[in-house]
Amino acid sequence: MTGKTQINKVRANSLSQNRAEEFGYDLSKDFVLPPIYEALDFKKSIKPKIFIGGRGCGKTMLLRYLSHQTSFSKSKKNISVEDIKNIGLYWKVDTHMVHQLQKRGLEDDIWQSAFEHIVTLFSCLEVCKSLESIANSKFESFGKDEIDVLDINFLNEIGIDAPKSLYQLKDYFKSKISEFELWLRNVRKGSAPQFFPRSFISLLVNKLRNENGQFKNSIFNIYIDEYENLVEYQQEIINTWVKHSESPIVFHLAMKRNAFRTKKTVGSESLTELHDYRVHDLEDYPEGKKGFMVFAAEILLYRLQGQVNFKGYDFNPNILIDPTGFDERKSKVYRSNILEIVESIFPSLSKKDLANIIADDKNLIHRLFEKLNQILKIKKSSLTARDFIFYDDLRISLISLSLLHRDTIKPEVILGEIQKFKLGKPSNFNNSTDWIQNNFVGSYLYFYSGLNRVCPLYTGFRTFCEMSNGNIRHLTELCYKTFLRASDSNTADMIVEIWKITVDHQAQAAKQASTTFLNEIKTFGRYGNQLHTFVQRLGTLFSLAHKNPRQSEPEQNHFSIVEGAKGSKNSDTLLNEAIKWSVLFENKSTKKKSDHNPDYSEYVLNPIYSPYFHISYRKKRKLDFSLDTLDTLFSGSLDEYESLLRSYRSKWDLNENIKEHNLFSDLNI
Amino acid sequence: MNLNMQEEEDSSKLLFEKWDISFVGIPLDDRGNVANSFIEINSEKVIEVKYDAYEMALMVDGKLALIDDLDEFFSFIEKKRILIESTTMSFAEMLLILKQTKQYDCDISILYLEPKSYSQIRTPLIIHRREFELSHETPGFFPIPGFIKSYSDDIVKRTIFIAGYESERIDRAIEANSIPSNNCALIFGVPAFQAGWEMNSFANNIAVIKEQRLISEPYFSSANNPGSTYDILEEVYKSLDQDEELFIAPLGPKPGGIATALFLVENEDVSVFYDHPNKTPTRSKEVNKWHLYDIKF
Question: Is there a single domain that holds both residue B83 and residue B199?
Answer without folding.
Answer: no
